[in-house]
Amino acid sequence: MTDPTQDHPITCSREDGRVEVLFEGHEIADSGDVLVLKEADYAPVRYFPRSDVAMDFLQKTDKVTHCPYKGQASYYTIHRDARIIENAVWSYEAPLPGVSQIAGRLAFYPEHVDFKRAGLTAAETRAVDVNEVVRHTDSGSGSSQAEHWASNVSMPDDEAWEGDDFREEGPPPVAKPYEGTGSI
Questions:
Q1: CA distances from 16 to 28, 81, 150 (A)
Q2: Which tens digits make up the pLDDT trace of 127-178?
């Protein structure tokens, strides 16, 4: 896909595997043909084929918006289990030429639904890049094959051992006398 402008790049790629859309815990879409559109600094957006969406739970609204990079968007309200979320889904029915792949597909606002990666079948499994898998593993030399990332936890003091008393003031603890009955 081409970049509409240098300052506003847009790319579109197929997501590996299946993705489900859950609304209030109920499946509303399930597809192995999801396109991910990445536009400038915006969060990526998943576009689902209409045939993989439970359209019985969507109702088209009068809302229409225009994007100078994608074209005119139409909106849908989700109606399910007595819950109504207005304009929670959108679609570019006739997008501009640079983004024609998303024509007729549906996108969901992530604040209203949950996306779930479903289990993959053998046919959907992509080849694993071994270099990416072993990037941070020990090569046998005792060091990683890539630079280490910053730790997200603090390491314990090397001299601290379980049972150490770190109190700086006061008397040392006194052992509790044995209170059992019978012999030791």
A1: 19, 31, 29
A2: 334 444 445 455 555 555 555 556 666 656 655 555 555 555 666 666 666 6
Nearest to 70 by CA among 26, 9, 145: 9
Altogether, the residues listed in the chain come to a count of: 184
Please give the structure tokens belonging to residue 146: 């890539």
Span of 16-20, 104-108, 169-173 with lowest mean pLDDT? 169-173
Burial class (CB in 10 A: 0-12, 13-18, 19+), 112: middle
Amino acid at 37: L
Overall pTM surpassing 0.85 (yes/no)? no
Cβ-contact 10, 38 below 8 angstroms: yes
Among 50, 56, 41, 51, which residue's Cα sits nearest to residue 11?
41
Given a cut of 90, whether residue 19 has pLDDT beyond it is: yes
Please list the residues that pair with 37 across neighbouring strands: 12, 45
Please answer whether residues 37 and 11 qualify as being in contact, where contact means their C-beta atoms are separated by less than 8 angstroms: yes
Decide if pLDDT at 182 tops 70.
Answer: no
153: exposed, middle or buried (Cβ count in 10 Å: 0-12, 13-18, 19+): exposed
* Positive or negative: CA dihedral 115, 116, 122, 127: positive
